[in-house]
Amino acid sequence: MGFGNPQKLMRQMQKMQADMARVQESLGDMTVETTAGGGAVRCVMNCKQEVRDLGIEPELLNPEEVEMLQDLLIVAFNEASRLAQEKAAAEMSKVTGNVKIPGLL
Q1: CATH of the domain spanning 6-96
Q2: Least CB-packed of 17, 33, 96, 104 within 10 Å?
Q3: pLDDT band (50, 70, 90) for residue 92
């Protein structure tokens, strides 16, 4: 069982590598948005898992509700992170043809 044309295989690998680099770079421009607490807290994160925007409804700023606000922020950040990971994996799978490559996402 052979591997076919080695030069063709090498070109395909180089193209995949270039495509993966392009996708990795574009992940900073792709965003996901999530909310917690019925929309009281909103978080926008890029697919490199960097928070780009955070919204908090003003009525939540009551000092007596700080602990609830902290909990909602944690939920919003974690959900945004999960969505960003999913979106990044989906973009990479377009390049890799669903082949899992260790160390990438």
Answers
A1: 3.30.1310.10
A2: 17
A3: confident
